[in-house]
Amino acid sequence: MRKRSAVALTIVVSIGALAMFFPFLWTIITSISSGAGLSASPQLIPDDPSLSAYAELFDNTPFLQVIANSLGLAIATTVAQLATSALAAYAFSRLPFRGSNLVFAIYLATMMIPIQVLIVPLFIEIKMLGLLNTYVGVLLPGLASAFGVFLLRQAMNAVPRELDEAAKIDGAGHFRIFGTIVMPLVGPAVATLTVFAFMSSWNSFLWPLIVLRTPELQTLPIALAGLQGQYTTQWDVLMAGSVISVIPMVLIYIFAQRYVIQGVANTGIK
After folding, report:
1. Which residues are CB-neighbours of 58 under 8 A, at least 6 positions away?
2. Alpha carbons 164 and 95: distance in angstroms, whole number
3. Which residues are CB-neighbours of 130 under 8 A, at least 6 positions away?
4. Gyration radius from the chain CA atoms
5. CA nearest to 92, candidates 143, 141, 146, 162
6. Which ranges does the record mark as transmembrane (predicted)?
7. Whether the Cβ atoms of residue 263 and residue 192 lie closer than 8 Å to each other
8. How far apart are CA 31 and CA 240, in angstroms?
9. Under 8 Å between Cβ of 220 and 182
10. Residues sharing a CB contact under 8 Å with residue 205, sequence separation 6 or more, in sequence order
11. What is the Cα–Cα distance from 66 to 124, expressed in whole angstroms?
12. How many CB atoms neighbour CB 139 within 10 A?
């Protein structure tokens, strides 16, 4: 009975994995099918695979500059969120103060506010600060993350406080405890936040579209949207851009997969 259940579960999981992977596989196949368009759907195994779509993409568009723009913004956003989230999480976890639970609850409640509601006030604020069409204007709203604070706080709560007490006996202060004891022990949660923060910035479309006006400053999602107008029926070029946009996320997830799963699991352990 158990063997049958295991086999059935394996079949179901395999079908689900195939269903999720197939669109990405079809995107890759389309990108290497030269001249693929609405009238010529690509085959599962292309007769004459070619990288001409990638060559055309980089030759006729500033795609390399666009990738550099998105990569720089994603790295800056990730570093900023790691720093602010780690410090705030340590304060909520190790420096309790009157009303800290209420402040934390209110801070988490901001996660329920859709970004569309904040677009207009954020735009007015950025405009008054003179930061339109600048990367600083794109970065400011994403310097802190309520999700990141929650994730790291839950991980820090699982770290035994006896380690803090032993360090204090040896004369360590909060900054030393934070840097040498707590942070090394919440590595999986940090890796999880790194992946989520990088992915959020890398895929961000609406806010960069509103703030950035110069084509040279545009990010990858905006450039991909522009390709739909420039290469309307050249699906191989469109899919080549899509494949390039996915590659960094696949690589970073493969590298941090074990830590991501462990970090998400640890947030539910009290």
Report:
1. 64
2. 12
3. none
4. 23
5. 146
6. 7-29, 66-90, 102-124, 130-152, 173-199, 237-256
7. yes
8. 5
9. no
10. 219, 221, 222, 225
11. 26
12. 17
d(CA 134, CA 211): 7
User: Using an 8 Å Cβ cutoff, are 213 and 270 in contact?
Assistant: no
Q: Note the pLDDT tens digit of each residue in 2-13.
A: 777 888 888 998
Residue-wise pLDDT tens for the chain (270 aa)? 677 788 888 899 899 988 888 888 888 888 888 765 544 555 677 777 788 888 888 888 888 999 999 999 999 999 999 999 999 999 999 988 888 889 999 988 888 888 888 899 999 999 999 999 999 999 999 999 999 999 999 999 988 888 888 888 888 888 899 998 899 889 888 988 998 999 999 999 999 999 998 888 999 999 888 887 666 667 788 888 889 888 888 888 787 777 666 655 554 444
Q: What is the phi-psi region of residue 224: left when phi exceeds 0, alpha when psi lies from -120 to 50, beta otherwise? A: alpha
Cα dist from 87 to 84, 164, 182, whole Å: 5, 16, 11
Q: Which domains does the chain have, with CATH numbers?
A: 50-266 (1.10.3720.10)
Query: Which of 60, 22, 114 has the alpha carbon at shortest distance from 223?
Result: 60
Q: Is 173 helix (H, G, I), strand (E, B) or coil?
A: coil
Q: H-helix or E-strand containing 12? A: helix 2-31
Percent residues over pLDDT 90 in the chain: 32
Q: Write out the two tokens for 220.
A: 């990858």
- CA-based nearest residue to 148, from 242, 203, 80, 99: 80
Q: How far apart are CA 25 and CA 45, in angstroms?
A: 11
- Report the candidate in 205, 76, 216 with the shortest Cα–Cα distance to residue 139: 76
